[in-house]
């Protein structure tokens, strides 16, 4: 009995000391502690991957499995083409159906990866509607994430999406029935929704990832990747590395409420030249000579935290 009382007394003293320490922390440090705690709690909850049968969505599920993180692989059919494991729960979910989304996004969702896109369909003009998926579907997803206080929504968008006069934008928009119009409208709406007062303080935020031309080869790793902000450069990148960026950004304070482009540094070109460069490299195997033009906002790193370091948060007018 005396031993039990001693253990209880020591435990109570420890808790009291911890509470006093937290009260003594200055505001910024206390907030950082709270964010760290919330991220740790969120990591124990499953990550919802919307569009899990798509190229990037499937790679996101694989990367989560590799990291030992539980996830929900949501597909329109309820069938998953990837390898199942005890970490993966397969669910039926249609981003164009608000009720379907509401059944998937709950207080028990640790994060959401929006990898669904009309461009993933075999024939986007006939089988899917870009506005319904990449704009309205994304907005409904963001609203639910905010309502349920999901710590992070990661949106897989596209390089060149904010430059309607660029060749990249014009080509993809025509090829996929207004896909770029829908994507930028969805992006803008997400940024506006998350600008609401109090959300950042609650550690409820987003990350918009704009990959360059997507390839299906194995990932090259963090040291090959360059990030940029301002949508002035792009290149090529394997889906596996886009997935890694999405998952690694989930717990990154540096990537909180940010929008950035990603591509391999040795494929970097200005938007006016990137389509020609990508076509030559993929079609004829012509090696890309990266542009020497610098925006001053490029980011490189030999670890994921270093890669995200220095990203500028979005400013919403």
UniProtKB/TrEMBL annotation:
Keywords: Signal
Record field: compositional bias (Basic and acidic residues): 295-307
InterPro entries per UniProt: NAD(P)-bd_dom, NAD(P)-bd_dom_sf
Leader sequence residues: 1-17
Top-level taxon in the UniProt lineage: Eukaryota
Keyword Nucleus appears in the UniProt entry: no
Protein name from the UniProt record: NAD(P)-binding domain-containing protein
Coiled-coil spans in chain: none
Segments forming domain NAD(P)-binding: 51-252
UniProt cross-references to Pfam families, sorted A to Z: NAD_binding_10
Region entry Disordered, spans: 286-307
């Amino acid at each position: 009995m005396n031993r039990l009382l001693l253990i209880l007394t020591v435990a109570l003293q420890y808790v009291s000391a911890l509470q006093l320490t937290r009260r003594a922390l200055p505001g910024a440090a206390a907030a950082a502690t709270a964010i760290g705690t919330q991220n740790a709690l969120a990591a124990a909850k499953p990550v919802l991957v919307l569009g899990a049968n798509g190229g990037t969505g499937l790679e996101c599920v694989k990367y989560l499995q590799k990291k030992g993180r539980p996830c929900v692989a949501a597909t329109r059919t309820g069938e998953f083409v990837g390898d199942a494991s005890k970490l993966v729960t397969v669910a039926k979910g249609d981003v164009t159906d608000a009720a379907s989304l509401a059944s998937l996004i709950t207080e028990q969702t640790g994060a959401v990866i929006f990898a669904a896109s009309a461009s993933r369909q075999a024939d986007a003009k006939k089988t899917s509607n870009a506005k319904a998926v990449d704009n309205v579907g994304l907005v409904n997803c963001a609203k639910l994430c905010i309502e349920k206080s999901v710590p992070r929504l990661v949106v897989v968008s596209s390089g060149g999406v904010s430059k309607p006069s660029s060749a990249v934008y014009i080509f993809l928009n025509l090829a996929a029935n207004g896909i770029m119009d829908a994507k930028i409208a969805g992006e803008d709406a997400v940024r506006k929704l998350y600008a609401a007062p109090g959300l950042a303080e609650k550690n409820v935020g987003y990350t918009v990832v704009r990959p360059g031309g997507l390839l299906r080869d194995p990932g090259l790793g963090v040291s090959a990747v360059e990030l940029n902000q301002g949508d002035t450069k792009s290149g090529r990148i394997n889906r596996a590395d886009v997935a890694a960026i999405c998952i690694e950004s989930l717990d990154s304070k540096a990537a909180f409420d940010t929008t950035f482009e990603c591509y391999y540094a040795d494929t970097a070109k200005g938007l006016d030249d990137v389509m020609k460069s990508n076509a030559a490299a993929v079609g004829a195997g012509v090696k890309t000579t990266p542009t020497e033009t610098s925006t001053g906002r490029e980011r490189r790193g030999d670890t994921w935290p270093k890669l995200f370091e220095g990203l500028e948060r979005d400013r919403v007018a």
